[in-house]
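Consortium newsletter contribution from the modelling node. Members have asked for a concrete example of what our holo predictions look like. Here is one, prepared for the nicotinamide-adenine-dinucleotide complex that several groups have been discussing at recent meetings.
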Amino acid sequence: MTQQVLVLPGDGIGPEITAEAVKVLEALNRSDNLDIVLSEDLVGGAAYDVHGVPLSDETMAKAQAADAVLLGAVGGYKWESLDISVRPEKGLLRLRSEMQLFANLRPAYLFPQLADASTLKPEIVAGLDILIVRELTGGIYFGQPRGIRTLENGERQGYNTYVYKESEIKRIAHVAFQAAMKRNKKLTSVDKANVLEVTELWREIVDVVAKEYPEVTVNHMYVDNAAMQLVFNPKQFDVMVTGNMFGDILSDEASMLTGSIGMLASASLDANNKGMYEPSHGSAPDIAGQNLANPLATILSAAMMLRYTLGREDLAVKIETAVSKVLDQGLRTGDICSAGMTQVSCSEMGDAVVAAL
Ligand code: NAD
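And here is the predicted structure:
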């Protein structure tokens, strides 16, 4: 059955890196019975310039109708002074919230060929393969009330509310347990239950859901310790599950273990495994338009799309194997290039992956 994929390149390096992922998908369409139709639209600053909003209603409708969305990145200097309601990031937040993408999966996988690209010692990170499952539509980033108010004495006070309902914790816990079942059956749930009641509930509910997955070993860790353990002994982790804010921070920390943010894919899924796929990095305005960006995070995001939404695990593995082959050939974009390797451009990297497929 033909499946529809909406490509939203966005801003900065977005169009360059998505073009390479599209090349790879089109190659699989030709060679491997992949039957997807790719269409393209605007998001972020690019959409604002045309429509006056970072995501038009028409584009939102196309995203809802598609089987999956592949996104580049949004944002850039040009749009930084816009009112917050129409900033490029709002387009992304609208997609996440209206598509109900509550589960963010961010693998921190270190290709062995890049062990020396990490700032940590190779023996600490070699073989690293962590999956961080972050709750994406709740927690303190969305909790009400929020704002900045003026107190009686005239002093201003900023405030946010950290909330999770049982149902929200339950559904993200199920995603994490199911992911753990497909991997090494080990789950670490991260909270701050010693201080925050909301995460005391988180811990309790994770333990309730755990009863449905007796094969998975669960442990609980306070977020401050988790941050420390990630750089001390990261290989102790298999799947980590946590709330929106802790996940935001820990997944960026984990990403650095793998050398470059240019290697890190992500998936954001709804309750039916429909999803939006995007690299973990931003629009890198400092290198945009120069054919310098590393497209591998986006290409690996396309692999995740094949795995989680389009039902083609075989082709996901095929892309990942091709990326590994290209790294074996010594080809590197600037962000991961070290002595003795061959530096290639963004488009040359995409071509090399297609050739290796
Ligand atoms: P960034 O991730 O864009 O860049 C950080 C650094 O990493 C830069 O030096 C950049 O050149 C480098 N980098 C990032 N991706 C790379 C790649 N594929 N290949 C090689 N190098 C790469 O983060 P930032 O500089 O903090 O933000 C830039 C803009 O991106 C801002 O407008 C920000 O709001 C936006 N942003 C968007 C997203 C998103 O679309 N999901 C996420 C984060 C930041």
